User: Fold this.
Amino acid sequence: MVEITLIGKPGCHLCDEARPVVERVVASFHGVTLTEVSILDDPALEARWHDDIPVVLIDGRPHSAWRVDEAKLTERIRARLDAPGG
Assistant:
């Protein structure tokens, strides 16, 4: 199982661009889940990621900020699924 987290906020145009890319990539895999969270709902997230949204985390680790490259995200998820314990 791989957990993808998309961190953003409402009204963020880069977040709106990233969302369908991330959703498309996640939908192409079995065993991958997507959680979307808003920095407006969590002061710690806002303090950490305010200047970097949207942020994509793979299993809690930063993968990308600002822009999401579909091919790179696909590659990283595939590698994570192929890794021992993935």
